[in-house]
Every structure is written in structure tokens, then in C-alpha cells.
Amino acid sequence: MRLGGLALGLAFGIGLLVGVPGDAQVKIPPDFSFEKGKDSPGPVTFSHEKHKEKAEKCTACHTKVFKMKKGTSGTITLAALKEGKFCGACHDGKTQVGGVVAFAVDDKANCEKCHKK
């Protein structure tokens, strides 16, 4: 019995030193681009790194707003964004993320923040 307690204590101590598998840092995916849509002013390059600086957890967007696999969440349109879907879930000019209000996607002054020519 004493040996079992020692083994359990040792396993717990090693677990604290090594860490729990679920605690591993997720590698931030590289930037990727959305092609220019039919009525779009230009393509959009999305940066996970910039968004991770504001939203502390990946689960802020995944899987509530976006599915994990690229291209499976549906078609992103300005109308959908204005309805609060996709990027519009936060980028509504009201929602605070990381202590800062996310700019509104429907304000023409903000188009070039995402759309590059």
C-alpha cells in the first residue's frame, strides 16, 4: 500500500513538471487569404496572430463563429457580416475584445483594414 502511494505521488509530481497533454500550446496558423468576392473591394488576408493578441483563446471564434477547417464555415458576405455572422460577430463597433472595441465592418472608413488592393 505504501509503495502505491509513493508511485501515485511520483506520477503526480512528474505530471506537474511535464504538464498535462491538454495544456500544450497550439501553434498559431499562418495568415491566409480570402479571394476577392463578386462585390468585394479586394481580397482579405486574415491574421490569426493579430486576433490572438486581442482574443485570448481560440475558442472565442472556434467553433462558435468559425468551423476549424478552412472553407467550411460558409460564404462570407457584407450582408452576413452586418447580421453579426463571421467577423461581424465581434466587428460591430460595440463588442469589446481585449479591452478594445472592435471596429465595425459596415463603416466604409474601415474597409481597407481588411481589404487590400
- Strands side by side in the biggest sheet: 1-2
CATH architecture group name: Alpha-Beta Complex
**Alpha-beta classification:** alpha+beta
How many DSSP H or I helices?
4
Please write the CATH class name. Alpha Beta
Report the C-alpha radius of gyration, rounded: 21 Å
Q: Largest sheet, if any? A: 2 strands, antiparallel
The stretches of 5 or more residues where confidence is low (pLDDT under 50) are: none
Distance between the termini: 71 Å
Kindly report the average pLDDT value.
Answer: 82
Going by CATH, the homologous superfamily would be Cytochrome C3
Q: Return the CATH topology.
A: Cytochrome C3
Number of distinct beta strands: 4
**Approximate strand percentage:** 5-15%
Write the layout of secondary structure elements.
Elements: H1 2-18, E1 32-34, E2 44-46, H2 48-54, H3 78-82, E3 96-97, E4 100-101, H4 111-114
Antiparallel strand pairs: 1-2, 3-4
Walkthrough of the structure:
With 117 residues, the protein is α+β, with helices and mostly antiparallel strands. Helices cover 28% and strands 9% of the residues. It is built from 4 helices and 4 strands. It has helices at residues 2-18, 48-54, 78-82, 111-114, and strands at 32-34, 44-46, 96-97, 100-101. The strands form 2 sheets. A two-stranded antiparallel ribbon has the order 1-2. A hairpin with a 2-residue loop joins strand 3 and strand 4. The chain is globular.
